[in-house]
Structures are given as C-alpha cells and as structure tokens.
Amino acid sequence: MATKDQRTGPRGGKTTVSKRGLIRKTIWIHEDENEALRRAAFEERKTETEIVRELLRQRFGLSD
Questions:
Q1: Most buried among 1, 40, 41, 43, by the most CB within 10 A?
Q2: How far apart are CA 4 and CA 22, in angstroms?
Q3: CA–CA separation, 16 and 19 (whole Å)
C-alpha cells in the first residue's frame, strides 16, 4: 500500500488524506437517502460521516 505522501486519485493527481490517514471521498446520493442519513445523525447524535463509515465497515466485514 502506498504511503500518505504517495497516494494519488483516479486521474493520477494527489488525493486528500487527513493526518489520521482518512481519505476524502465525494459521493452522490438520492434525496431520500440524504434525508434518512441526516435524520439518523441527528437522532443518534453522530456525524453523517460516522454513520456512513459504520455502514461501510458492516457491509464489508471490517473490524474497528
């Protein structure tokens, strides 16, 4: 796996990586998905990012 300094995006340019090693992604979702995510984040007192990452980890069987 490439180091933080060597990561590139799909077109070969640099990609945004946080100090914690998180990679920035942009996704397109439907309005109803957005509303469900917004509502869940509010009710669970979590960020939308936390919820999306939890769901991705569940879906792909990744441990914390």
A1: 41
A2: 10
A3: 10
Tokens matching residue 43: 């009710």
Indicate the residue type of 56: L
Encoded tokens for 30: 């439907």
Lookup: tokens for 36: 């469900």
Number of domains comprising the chain: 1
pTM above the 0.85 mark?
A: no
- What is the domain range of residue 56? 25-64
Q: Which residues of 2-37 are buried (b: 16+ CB within 10 A; e: fewer)?
A: eeeeeeeeeeeeeeeeeeeeeeeeeeeeeeeeeeeb
Is 14 among the domain residues? no
